[in-house]
Amino acid sequence: YIFDKLNEILDNYGDVVRGYAWSLVNAISAYANLLMNYIGHFNSEEVGDMVGRVVDLLNELGRFKSSLGVIAWADALAPALVHEYVRGLMEEKLGIDVVSKASEVLEELNDMRNRVQELMSDKEFMGYVESRFVKADEEAVKKEILEASSPLKYALADYRLNENELDEAKELFNEVAKEYWEIGQYENYLTARGLALRVEAIKGSLVGKELVNEFRQLYEETFNEEHFELTARYLSTASHILGNYLVSLALINDVEGIRKLPEKHWLVLNADRRVSVLTRLMLNALLGPRRRLSGELKGKLSVNPEELIYAFEYDMLHNSLPALRVAFKMISPEVGIKLCEEFDDIVCTDLVLAVEGDSVVVKQLREAVINDFNNSLEGFDSDVRSLINKFSGLVRGLDGRSLVQLIAPGYSMARLALMLHALINGNKELAKALALDEAASVSKKLPTRLLLEAYKACCDLGKDEFRLALARLFFLHV
C-alpha cells in the first residue's frame, strides 16, 4: 500500500515534491525503509523500480546546494549494504562502489557534527529538521546527524562482519553503540554493544571468564530497572543478550551461574521463541556431554520437537512441515499424507513417504539434494570436488527421517537449530550434512568460514575445539 501510494504521489505531484529538498529526502527515506525492512514483500521488478526512483530523487536533490544531500545518501545506502541485489542495482545505476561511498558519506556526516552552527544557516537543511522536530535548535541538528549516521554505520558494520573483516566490524559497532547512547536510543545501544562483543567472541579475542564478564556487564545493563521496558522490541533485545550471557557461562561450565538466573529472566528469554530454542539447544550441546545437566535445570533447558517446529515454522519450507512432524513422531504418516492433500503438493507427499522408508522416493530425494548442493558451489573458493564427495557420502548414508530434516530448513537459524538437535540426539552425519549444506548456500564469507570450521571439527562435544566452533556459529546468529 505504501509503495503504491508513494509511486502515485510522485507520478501525480512530482513537481511539488521536487520543489523542496526536504520532501525529496523524505521520499528517499520512505523507499529506503521499504527496501531495508520489507524487501521480501516485493518482486525483483518492484525492487528495481524503487531503486530507480531513489536514484532519480538523489539526482534531483543534487540541484540544491545543501548539506541535506548527505542525509539522503545515508538513507539510500543502508539497504544497499544489507541486500546484495539492491547493492548491485544501485552500483549499476549510479556508477559507484556502495561500500566506498558509504565510508565517504560517514566521513561527511562526522564533519557535519563539527559544523552545526554553519548548518543552521542552511535553509534547505533546516527545513528538513523543522519537518521532523518540534523545535529546530542546535540539539535537534546534532540529533538529526546522528540519526542519519547510526543506521548507515550499523549497516556498514554488518557488511564488514559478513565479509569476515572482524576488526573493522567491531570498531564500527562500538562507534554505533556510542552514537545510540548519545541520542538516547538505549535498546539500539544494547544491540550494537552486544554485536561488538559477539564479534570479539567470534574472533577469539575474548574467551573464558573475560568473555563471561563482558556479557555479564551487558546483561546487567539490559535488566537495569531504570531502562528496562516491557515492549516487544526491548524484550527481544533482552532475549538475545541473555542468550549470549548464558552460552558464555556454559563455555566455562558454570552451571551454578546458569542455575542462579532469576525465574523472571527465564521468562524474558522466552520472549523471542527462536532465540530461546537456540539458546537452550546450545546449552544442552555444551553441558549435556559433560553430565552437567540434571534435575530442574535439565527440565528447564529441554526442547521438544513440537517447540522446535513452532519456533522455526516460518523458517522451514512449508511443504516439508507435515513430513517433519512425522519424522519427529508428532503425527502419524497417515495424518501427514492428509495434510499434504490439503496443500495439493506432490513433493510434500514424497517427503512423508521418505520418512516412512519408501526406498524409491528416498533415492530420488538424495539425488535431488546432491544436485542442488553441486549447483550451489559455483564460484565457491574451497576445494569443490572434495566438498561434493564428502556431502554425497553423507547424504547417501541418511535415512528418510534424516533426509527430511536436511531438506526442511529454508533459513540459516533453522538449520543451526536442527544441527544442534541432531548433535544432541547423536545424529552426527545429519549435523555434518546440515553444516556443509548451509556453507554452500550462503554467499557471505564469515558464515561460510564458520560453518566449514564447525564441519571439520565435528562432532565430539567433549572437545573444546568443536565446542568453540559451535559457539561461534551461535554468536553469529544470536
Write the layout of secondary structure elements.
Layout: H1 2-17, H2 21-37, H3 44-61, H4 68-82, H5 84-94, H6 98-112, H7 116-119, H8 123-132, H9 138-162, H10 166-182, H11 186-203, H12 208-222, H13 232-251, H14 255-259, H15 263-269, H16 273-287, H17 295-301, H18 305-312, H19 321-327, H20 333-343, H21 346-356, H22 359-376, H23 384-396, H24 400-407, H25 412-424, H26 428-441, H27 445-457, H28 464-477
What would a concise description of this structure say?
By secondary structure, the chain is mainly alpha-helical.
Question: Would you kindly provide a written description of the structure presented here, covering whatever features stand out?
Answer:
This protein has 478 residues and is mainly alpha-helical. Helices cover 76% and strands 0% of the residues. It is built from 28 helices and no strands. It has helices at residues 2-17, 21-37, 44-61, 68-82, 84-94, 98-112, 116-119, 123-132, 138-162, 166-182, 186-203, 208-222, 232-251, 255-259, 263-269, 273-287, 295-301, 305-312, 321-327, 333-343, 346-356, 359-376, 384-396, 400-407, 412-424, 428-441, 445-457, 464-477. Helix 10 packs antiparallel against helix 11 and helix 16 (273-287) packs antiparallel against helix 28.
